[in-house]
């Protein structure tokens, strides 16, 4: 969590400084920002909740650093970005601890169950969001 506030605050300034100095660095930063933007789908849609859930998923490439990069790219407010990253890191730690303490068979079952629960949760959240944005006509 230590670098997260610095990434959120200074990533764009640092990237524009480095991009101005080197074409190679500019291309690498473009690739990095493009990949982060691709991963930002749910975060763009749900902002704080989306970023927190993205960081909470204990898979490679979904941690606090990537969450901070996405928050910076999406211009999320500072405290919103840092707090959602923090909550996501805590949830990821609790989830990994739970899975480690369950044992291999139970962890596999729990992982499959969590996959289905998260898929169902995202669809429910999307439906709620659609009903709020576009109220049904009488």
From TrEMBL:
InterPro entries, per this entry? Sm_multidrug_ex (IPR009577)
Q: Would the keyword Membrane turn up in this protein's UniProt record?
A: yes
Question: One cellular component GO annotation, for this chain's record?
Answer: chloroplast
Bilayer-crossing regions? 48-71, 78-100, 106-125
The superkingdom listed in its UniProt entry is Eukaryota
Report whether Transmembrane shows up as a keyword of the record.
yes
What Pfam families does the record point to?
A: Sm_multidrug_ex
Q: Which UniProt keywords apply?
A: Membrane, Transmembrane, Transmembrane helix
What PANTHER family does the record tag this protein with? TRANSPORT PROTEIN-RELATED (PTHR36007:SF2)
This chain belongs to the protein called Small multi-drug export protein
């Amino acid at each position: 969590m230590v670098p997260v506030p610095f990434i959120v605050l200074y990533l764009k300034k640092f990237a524009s400084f480095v991009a101005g100095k080197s074409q190679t660095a500019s291309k690498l930063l473009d690739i990095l920002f493009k990949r982060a933007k691709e991963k930002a789908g749910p975060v763009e849609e749900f902002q704080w909740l989306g970023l927190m859930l993205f960081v909470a998923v204990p898979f490679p490439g979904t941690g606090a650093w990537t969450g901070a990069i996405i928050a910076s790219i999406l211009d999320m407010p500072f405290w919103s970005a840092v707090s959602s990253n923090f909550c996501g890191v805590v949830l990821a730690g609790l989830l990994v601890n739970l899975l480690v303490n369950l044992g291999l068979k139970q962890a596999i079952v729990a992982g499959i169950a969590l996959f289905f629960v998260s898929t169902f949760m995202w669809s429910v959240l999307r439906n709620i969001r659609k009903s709020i944005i576009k109220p049904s006509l009488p």
